[in-house]
Amino acid sequence: MNQMPVTPHAGMPEVFEPLFSAGTPDPAAIDHFLTENAFPLVLPGRAIFAWHGRADRVELVRWIHAGGSRHPFHRLPHTDLWVTTLPVEDGGRFEYKFAVGHGAHEDLVLDPLNRLRAGDPFGENSVCRTFGYERPDWTRDQGAPKGVIEDLRVESNVFGEARHEQVYLPHGYDAEQEYPLVIIHDGQEFDNFADLSVSLDNLIHQGDVPPLVAVLIQARDRMSEYPGGRRHARYLVGDLLPLIEQRYSLSRALEKRVLLGASLGAVASISTAFRYPGVFGGLILKSGTFILDKRKLASRAHPVFHRTARLTRALQRAPKLPPTRAFVSTGELEGLADENRKLAIFLRDHGVDVLFKSAWDGHHWHNWRDQLRDGLVWVLGQQTPD
Q: Are residues 253 and 350 in the same domain?
C-alpha cells in the first residue's frame, strides 16, 4: 500500500476519505471496507453507490421516465473502485442496475453490495430505498389467517376460447354472506411480484378492508387487448361477471364492485367502467398509461400509446358516470405523473369522487403494492386513508 495520503478526489464522497487516509488502499482493504459498510449508503437527500472491479466505465441505470436514466460513476485514483452520489427524494424508492462497460461491450448487472431486490416478468432489479422509506408492515407475512386461491375456467364467447383465471377467497369464506368484488388486472403477476395475497390477508384481518372476493385476471396479450378495451370490456361484463356471480356470493351494491389495474391494466379498467356505466362503482387506477398531451404523444413512437390516446379522447366525450369512487396513484419517476394528475381531474369533471396520491417511485410492482391499502380503503370505505 502507498503510504502517501491521497488528495480527496472531486468525485469522492466523504465516506471514502478514511479508506484513503493512509494512502491508496489495496483491493483487500477496499473489499473489507465495502463489506463493513452498507451500500447503497442512504443519507437525507442522497444515496451513495459503489462498484469494485475492472471496467472502462460504470453507470447507474434507473428504470424511470419510460426508459433508462443513466448516471455515471467516477473511478477513484489508482484503484478499481467506482463511486457515485445520486440526489434523491426522501421517503421513496427506485429500481436500478449497474451498466458495466468493457470497450464496446456492456453488461447490466445487479448491485452486488445490495441484497434488496424486486422482481417483475422480465427478471430482477436492485432496489434503493431512500432516507425515511419504510415498507408497509401489512405487505409482509404477519401470521394472519390466509385466504385461498382457486382456479377458474371461463368459457369466453367474446374471445372464442377458454380462459384460466384465479379467485382469491378470504379466510372463512361463507356462501351465506355477500362479499365485495375486486377484479384485478394482471392479478397473477400482482400476486407473484407485489405480495397481493399476503397483503389482502393482513388488511382483512386488521379490519382495514372488509372480507372480499378478488378475481385475478391475466390476458394473454395485454399489449393489444387492454388499450383497445372493447372486447376486453365485453369479456369482463358478458363472460366473467355472470360466471362469478353464479359461483360466488357477491354483493350487488354498485359501490362494492371494483376494477383495479396498473399501467395498461388501469386503461382497461377505466375503459370498462365507461363502456358499461352502472356495473362497477369503484376504480383503482395505478400508474395508468394515459397521454392527454399531444406534444408528449408525439414523442412516444410505440403504437400502444396512440391506442390509449384514442381511447382517452373517446372518454372525454362520454357522459358522466353513475356514483363512482376512484383512487388514482402514480410514481413521480415514471414519466406520466402529470398525465395521471390530469386523469384525476378528468374523472372529477365526470362526477367521480377521486382520491389522488403520488409516491417518489417508478413504474414498478412494489410501488403499486405500497398503494394497495389506500386504494381499497378509499373505494370500499367511507373515509380517506391515513
A: yes
Counting the structural domains of the chain, the total is: 2
What percentage of the chain's residues is helix, strand, coil (to nearest 5)? 35, 30, 40
Q: Higher model confidence: residue 301 or residue 53? A: 53
CA distances from 367 to 26, 87, 203, 209, 333 (A): 40, 20, 17, 20, 11
pLDDT bucket at 281, cuts 50 / 70 / 90: very high
pLDDT at 8 over 50: no
Joined grid coordinates for residue 191: 400476486
Q: Over pLDDT 70: what percentage of the chain?
A: 88
pTM: 0.90
The whole domain housing 84 covers: 14-129
Residue 112 is which amino acid? P
Gap between the Cα atoms of 144 and 142, Å rounded: 6
Cell digits of residue 5: 495520503
Same domain, yes or no, for 151 and 121? no
Kindly report the three-state secondary structure assignment for every residue of 339-383: HHHHHHHHHHHCCCEEEEEEECCCCCHHHHHHCHHHHHHHHHCCC
DSSP 91-156: T-EEEEEEEEEETTEEEEE--TT---EEEETTEEEEEEEPTT----GGGS---PPP-EEEEEEEEE
Angle at the Cα of 384 from the Cα atoms of 276 and 171, rounded to 5 degrees: 75
**If you average pLDDT over residues 172-192, what whole number do you get?**
97
**7 domain-assigned:** no
pLDDT of residue 369: 97
CA 198 to centroid of chain Cα atoms: 17
Same domain, 266 and 196: yes
Same domain, 169 and 71: no
Kindly report, residue by residue over 77-115, the tens digit of the pLDDT: 889 999 999 999 999 999 999 999 999 999 999 999 999
Kindly give, in sequence order, each residue whose CB lies less than 8 Å from that of residue 203, ignoring residues fewer than 6 positions away: 138, 209, 372, 373, 376
Mean pLDDT of 142-152: 97
